[in-house]
Amino acid sequence: MNWVYIENFIDADRVSNLSGPAGLIFPILQFRNHKAEIYGFDVSGRLKLWETPEYGLFSTTGFISYVYGKDLDMPNYTACGLSGATCYLLAQNFAKGDGLYHIMPLTARGAIEHRLGGWTSAVELQLVDSKTHVSVARNELKTGGYALVNLRTAYDWGTMRFDLAIENLFDQLYYPPLGGHYFTLAKVTNNPLTYGPVPGIGRNFIAGLTVRF
């Protein structure tokens, strides 16, 4: 577990607002040095499950990562229980602690791997928690949690390596916490209800060839 206090963290103050497409409001920001704190942890490991000359080596790997960051000079906007400009004004009376921008929520990844000769294959599960502690001053969007399944295989043959993979095997609709804002549809349809986070990539097929010289 690591904890860091930062005296001059480069953040931004919300100095005004700008009207955007479909009636959306975007903040105008000005860089400021603020006090901030960040804490979190990373845990990873590998465990051998089974190995025979005929069937190869089976193992499991995994990691968990968590980071939490807050601006100690900015109000905790989520404490006001409201939304929009009213919340931004009332929050000045609440305790400090607006979320730091672009912080990944709790993330875990685990895999079952198999190795036999030149073959390496894996079934991977990726888990991402919902992102609820956001930078309200920057209009950062909240996202829900999700789980993705990926399949990978590779064959190493001397100076060449062939890779095949299917990511998001079940074509899950999800929204990456750091994916940004998707306002193009709101602009085209002039409907603010279509404004939200950018969807993640659907089922994705990957093929690769590596040549070593």
Question: Could you explain the architecture of this structure?
Answer:
The protein has 213 residues and is mostly beta strands. It has a single domain, classed as TonB-dependent receptor, beta-barrel domain (Maltoporin, Chain A), CATH 2.40.170.20. Helix content is 6%, strand content 57%. Strands 1, 2, 3, 4, 5, 6, 7, 8 and 11 form a 9-stranded antiparallel β-sheet that branches. The two termini are 42 Å apart. The mean pLDDT is 89.
Describe the SSE topology.
Elements: E1 2-19, E2 25-52, E3 56-75, H1 84-90, E4 96-99, E5 107-116, E6 119-128, E7 146-157, E8 160-167, E9 181-182, H2 184-189, E10 196-197, E11 204-211
Antiparallel strand pairs: 1-2, 2-3, 3-4, 3-5, 5-6, 6-7, 7-8, 8-11, 9-10
Which key terms come to mind for this protein?
213 residues; Maltoporin, Chain A; single chain; globular; 11 strands; mainly beta; 2 helices; two-stranded antiparallel ribbon; 9-stranded antiparallel β-sheet
Describe the structure concisely.
By secondary structure, the protein is mostly beta strands. It has a single domain (2-211), classed as Maltoporin, Chain A, CATH 2.40.170.
Topology order in helix (H) and strand (E) letters? EEEHEEEEEEHEE
**Count of separate DSSP helical elements:** 2
For the record, what CATH class applies? Mainly Beta
CA gyration radius, whole angstroms: 22 Å
Structural class: mainly beta
